[in-house]
Amino acid sequence: MSGFKIAVLPGDGIGPEVVKQGVKVLETIGKLFHHGFEIQFGLIGGAALDEKGVPLPDETWELCQKADAILLGAVGGPKWDDLPSHMRPEKALLKLREGLKLFANIRPVKFYPNLAFSSPLKENLLKGVDLVIVRELTGGLYFGKPKGRFEENGKVYAVDTMYYTYEEIERIAKVAFELARNRKKKVTSVDKANVLETSRLWREVVQKVASRYPDITLEHMYVDNCAMQLVKNPAQFDVILTENTFGDILSDEAAVITGSIGMLPSASLGEGLKGLYEPIHGSAPDIAGMNIANPLGTILSVALLLRYSLRLEKEANAIEDAVEKVIADGFMTKDLYLNNPSAKKLVSTEEMGDIVV
Ligand code: NAI
Ligand code: MG
């Protein structure tokens, strides 16, 4: 009986609704497999701004520092859009990732046969898609300095800097190659080496890391081509390794493969076992409070939490199998249900959580 500390940060919009389902599933796993999960809730994002005046209160930071793993919903929404950038809800997430040194974002994308009609792509393109995007998370454009808005001689301009060190590229590349070892043994490194100096360094370092993994095939691909290949022939990919901004964009694009952005989980990892787990979607203010959001991305994030931070592979598989079965049985939230002849029953957020349980 192991006492794992899990920090749970529901956040804003649909965050609390989907996280509630994830917690239900986590508690069920605890009962079935006899683990003591110590679940502690914290404020983050707009919810924290409203109550404490800051997007990441000290208590939440301490909670996350002490935790073995963190489960997060989503942050942000129109209510806080006009705040200066250092006060915005999204800043809390960037601070958490940076502060906990979570440099590796892992986003598995898998095709479920019953969701072929939920995707705008043709079924024959989707068959066999099982890929994972490994996105560098604490470098590149989102963090590089100089950054900001400036005025000089009456001219206003803005600067973001794409900055990468050799070590930053090396450690994320290792994550991708290690993952590929237990998969289809192929890494596609995505860059823009024909234009960007950071990409040229990226390519060089990835090539070096690859020489230590002779069992893995490495290919390089330009990001614009990769964007096209993801919809043209997504089954060609195994592990996609890329920098922060490219990975952000490509993973949303890859979400159409599963039929809904509500399906995709993510793990953010550092050197140790501690990780931050969240669905890839945002707070979806347009459907918040309606009990229609798809909680499966969050529930699958709980599976990743069990696998990567707690090393509970059997338990992680149990969740993934349950999700697969629920979809195969035709239970779908609205985002998957519409125009899908494989759908048998339209279910709410709460009902979906219960059915997985
Ligand atoms: P979004 O991901 O929240 O929503 C995009 C579209 O997908 C919307 O139509 C939404 O209804 C739908 N959607 C998202 N999740 C869904 C789910 N689980 N089930 C069914 N439909 C779902 O992205 P958007 O609209 O660009 O951003 C909304 C807010 O979320 C913004 O404030 C943004 O900054 C924030 N955001 C936060 C993120 C995070 O916390 N990690 C990531 C992305 C955005
Ligand atoms: Mg994004």
From TrEMBL:
UniProt: NAD(+) binding residues: 77-90, 282-294
Site description Important for catalysis, residues in chain: 142, 192
GO biological processes: L-leucine biosynthetic process
Cofactor note: Binds 1 Mg(2+) or Mn(2+) ion per subunit.
Pathway: Amino-acid biosynthesis; L-leucine biosynthesis; L-leucine from 3-methyl-2-oxobutanoate: step 3/4
Transmembrane segments: none
Statement: the UniProt record of this protein carries the keyword Metal-binding: yes
Cofactor: Mn(2+); Mg(2+)
Binding site for Mg(2+): 224, 248, 252
All residue ranges annotated as the Isopropylmalate dehydrogenase-like domain in the record: 5-356
GO molecular function: 3-isopropylmalate dehydrogenase activity; magnesium ion binding; NAD binding
SMART domains hit by this protein: Iso_dh
Domain of life: Bacteria
Annotated Gene Ontology cellular component terms: cytosol
A Pfam family assignment: Iso_dh
Sites where the protein binds substrate: 97, 107, 135, 224
PROSITE patterns in the record: IDH_IMDH
Major location category of this protein: cytoplasm
Keyword field: Amino-acid biosynthesis, Branched-chain amino acid biosynthesis, Cytoplasm, Leucine biosynthesis, Magnesium, Manganese, Metal-binding, NAD, Oxidoreductase
EC number: 1.1.1.85
Annotated localization: Cytoplasm
Protein family according to the UniProt entry: Belongs to the isocitrate and isopropylmalate dehydrogenases family. LeuB type 1 subfamily.
Quaternary organization: Homodimer.
Function: Catalyzes the oxidation of 3-carboxy-2-hydroxy-4-methylpentanoate (3-isopropylmalate) to 3-carboxy-4-methyl-2-oxopentanoate. The product decarboxylates to 4-methyl-2 oxopentanoate.
PANTHER family for this protein: 3-ISOPROPYLMALATE DEHYDROGENASE
Protein name: 3-isopropylmalate dehydrogenase
Organism: Pseudothermotoga thermarum DSM 5069
Lineage, top ranks: Bacteria, Thermotogati, Thermotogota, Thermotogae, Thermotogales
